[in-house]
Amino acid sequence: MKHLKLFLAVVGLTLAFGAGAQSQDAMRLNEYLVVNTDDFQDDFGQQNAWFELFNSSYGTVDIGGCYLSDDANNLKKYAIPGGDLMTKVKPRQHVLFWADNQPYRGTFHVSFDLANAKEIILTKGDGKTIIDRIPVRHDLGDNISFGRAMDGEGSITGDGAGWQVMERTSPSTNNTLIDKAAKPDKMKAMDPYGWILALTAMSVVFLALILLYFIFKAIGNANIKAGKKRSAAVAGTDVKASQYGEVPGEVYAAIATAMHLYNEDSGTHDEESFVVTLHHTDRTYSPWSSKIYTLRETPQVSKRRR
Amino acid sequence: MQNILENLKEFWQFTGFANFEFGYLIMIIVGCLFIFLAIKFEWEPMLLVPIGFGILIGNIPLFAGLNVGVYEEGSVLNILYQGVQRGFYPPLIFLGIGAMTDFSALIANPKLLLIGAAAQFGIFGAYAISLALGFDAAQAGAIGIIGGADGPTAIFLSSRLAPNLMGAIAVSAYSYMALVPVIQPPIMRLLTTKKERLIRMKPPRPVSPTEKKLFPIIGFLLTAFIVPSGIPLLGMLFFGNLLKESGVTKRLANTASGPLVDIVTILIGVTVGASTQASQFLRWESVKIFIIGALSFVIATFAGVLFVKFFNLFLKEGNKINPLIGNAGVSAVPDAARVSNNVGLEYDPKNYLLMHAMGPNVAGVIGSAVAAGMLLGFLG
Description:
The structure holds two protein chains of two kinds.
Chain A: H1 2-23, E1 27-33, E2 49-55, E3 61-62, E4 67-69, E5 78-79, E6 88-89, E7 94-99, E8 119-123, E9 130-135, E10 145-148, E11 163-165, H2 182-190, H3 195-235, H4 249-263, H5 291-294
Chain B: H1 2-14, H2 22-41, H3 45-58, H4 76-85, H5 89-100, H6 104-108, H7 113-118, H8 121-132, H9 137-144, H10 151-161, H11 166-178, H12 180-191, H13 194-197, H14 209-226, H15 231-246, H16 250-274, H17 278-281, H18 284-312, H19 335-347, H20 354-379
Helix pairs in contact in B: 2-3, 3-16, 4-16, 5-10, 5-15, 5-16, 8-9, 8-18, 9-10, 9-20, 10-11, 10-20, 11-18, 12-18, 12-19, 14-15, 15-16, 15-20, 19-20
């Protein structure tokens, strides 16, 4: 059992760290605009080139510490500041960077522009591992952006697969308008018989309840041990853990019944057995409850055993 | 005289008789049947009486513009129906359920949690059948939740995924919950041997107040972190339970488990019933939903009982679980647990399974809320 617990702990920690390590990998370069003359304005009222990142995962990703660059030989050209709440990108959300070469204007203004850039590169916090890259096209014309056809989907190696010239720019929003019914439709197309969803969801239901099982098994064991110690301290003798908690249910039922009769059900034996005592019942008058108006009591179906 | 006649003629057009259609009569008969079953056989009377009468309210023939119907914006019934449509009645009911539920049986024997998980196969079996019968994925998810045997969860999920099917789903879920004593025993007998039915389980150990206080906190944090979309239901369920177990909020617990849950039960019952207007309800889809609902309960019962038999293969003699409590994993608190107890007593008059069955029973509530969160996450 100890080995099993150790194994589960190791698996849990591995998964936890694995999930954490993968989270920044979920970020994608999603869309960019090189020539901005009549498009989105930054918070200084200026129109500059921009590019957008997208969190393709279903968890929040902190991009603080990652790097952005337009030069493969200098991946650390712009370090995204850490400790900024704004760099925590919510699940399936976007974040917009201004390529205006004016980094002193804030977290989201990078230290390069796109006028002569060959590509845009997003690198992890280690400064070496490239998460995503995309060549910059300079033939698009004014106010025409280049982006992923579907948010977050397509190549991350810089070959441009899954990217297209956009019909309209969509800074900080979805590249494709999402149809409300798309999610279920997509699910049905991917899983026409429902088995994938069934297995996924059942795995999660089992996982949640198995974790609860382990936690309360551990708490229960600790409680039994504590009870054993208390019993030993009181009685001065050692009590086996297995003995604790094995009092038959009938004993509890008998004690509970006796206490109930003693404390609550005084009407049953208010004086002594076999003597019936009639109590006067006080009723506070109210026209809402008066029997003069309602004429009879609320009907009560007698309790039957089922 | 002419004016009086014209007025009477005009008045006649306002009456239900003038607007009568055959579908309304069928629904009125259904409503009366619900009331009859509740009063005569005491099948879920707290629900079937309000739903049954709600069906009568919703099926008085009206002409549009009178502004009294449940679907007419701004009408009193419509305002009350918002709690169903926007899904805020079900979490309030879960608050009351939490404040009423004693999780001791589950805490004492936490492996019973797994039975509550296994029984959720009913939800996903129904989901697969719904897809096969041509429902879209969102509708299938909403119909599937009938297998969770949990009325508030069914209403909550269907209001999000398939509002147009909510009446049929809610009525189906509550009807089959009332029919648990009829549906489950034959399946339980079919799947178990006499020897298995006679298994006596160890009495549950005493559970300390600290464990009872920790359960709602840990239970909520764990399940909500795994399935955040289930927070409205899970949060209120565990919050209600903490009110009960904390020992310092007795008044709040009493309100949550008494007047509050009673008020919301009345409102949810009447408005769900009123939403089953003949024009909305009498469709071929409703018939399919009723068939799938029945199958979902059958699948859930099969899964629960078979899972216990499978689980017993790994348990030592003396620790084995009586498979008759497997059915209780479907939720339907506490009727399913009562069914386990009654079937067990048929074979051994001294083998009281009720406390043991309450474990998977309340685990089923948690399991179905988690499953609903999953469906909402994938399909909502």
